[in-house]
Design brief:
Strand order of the largest sheet: 6-5-4-9-12-14-15
Helix content: 25-40%
Structural class: alpha/beta
Shape: globular
Radius of gyration: 20 Å
Number of strands: 15
């Protein structure tokens, strides 16, 4: 019961943030009608979001935080596609080198995992679990030849769920599907990374779905360009100690590389680490515990 109540609170708060972002502000009485809850519940949600810096409370409601991109702001897929496209392509090629034919892998939502999906389409006998509509479309298209006939390619398992602005599927349906599965590698796109906050996202429901993905994976590989470092979203869903490999690009500053060298993960810099250990499965054993 407690888990269900917590999930419902996360869903409510995600909807509140979406309303604040789209409309530039909301009133408490509007939220009570839309969400079907009491004034007291809405005010508690606003208090919690204000403490996180996701919005600013005003008399009778809430407005966006001025001056900075809120921790609860979730860019749409099209908006993110134009950010660091060359770096994402390099990261995708480096990450694909970790995948052995016949593996079961999972890809979360995101534009970097989308770039990775296009590379993985050519790896034989893969099974790909994903909660990304965009990733599923790429891999489905790869199975079809120009005349529409079946042309092979990865077997795709799409989780189902509620669609987010970044075209990921999240929520209870996605969470239950993922919890029943096990995969060799998880390739995880992230909104932000930091030593203190770990991996984070602005979407509360997506955070829970990402936790389920991490729990179902033997190895966790984060694929993120250098601009993600130091960014903190509304909700943390994993610590850096839960990551086996971080694949990034050469724009990562030296001071950040030094920070990461103190952590028990492998840093793989696309375009610099050209010689990988032989055998993707043997090269990166699962984290302890």
């Amino acid at each position: 019961m407690a888990e269900r109540q917590n999930l419902l609170a996360e869903q409510r708060r995600a909807l509140i943030l979406d309303e604040v972002r789209r409309r530039g502000g909301v009133r408490v009485n509007e939220l009570t009608q839309r969400l079907g809850v009491s004034d007291m519940t809405v005010r508690r949600d606003l208090d919690a979001l204000a403490r996180l810096g996701a919005l600013e409370k005003v008399h009778g409601g809430a407005v966006p935080v001025d001056g900075v991109e809120p921790t609860g702001h979730e860019p749409r897929f099209e908006e993110k596609t134009g950010r660091e496209p060359a770096a994402k392509e390099e990261i995708a090629r480096a990450a694909a080198s970790l995948v052995a034919p016949g593996a079961a892998v999972a890809l979360s939502g995101g534009t970097t995992t989308y770039a990775l999906a296009r590379v993985l389409a050519g790896v034989p006998d893969l099974t790909v679990v994903t909660n990304s509509v965009r990733v599923a479309d790429v891999l489905h298209t790869a199975r079809r030849s120009p005349d529409g006939a079946e042309a092979g390619g990865p077997t795709v398992v799409l989780t189902g769920g509620v669609r987010t602005p970044s075209d990921s599927l999240v929520g209870p349906v996605a969470d239950r599907a993922i919890a029943a599965l096990h995969f060799d590698l998880l390739f995880l796109g992230v909104h932000g990374i930091s030593v203190e906050a770990g991996l984070s996202t602005p979407n509360l429901a997506e955070a829970e779905t990402n936790r389920r993905l991490v729990a179902s994976a033997r190895r966790v590989v984060v694929v993120a360009d250098h601009t993600k470092w130091g960014t903190v979203g509304l909700s943390s869903f994993a610590s850096l100690s839960e990551v086996d490999v971080l694949v990034t690009d050469s724009g990562l500053p030296a001071v950040t590389r030094a920070e990461l060298s103190e952590l028990p993960l492998r840093l793989l810099v696309a375009g610099e680490d050209d010689e990988l250990p032989e055998g993707p499965a043997e090269a990166y054993p699962p984290r302890a515990g």
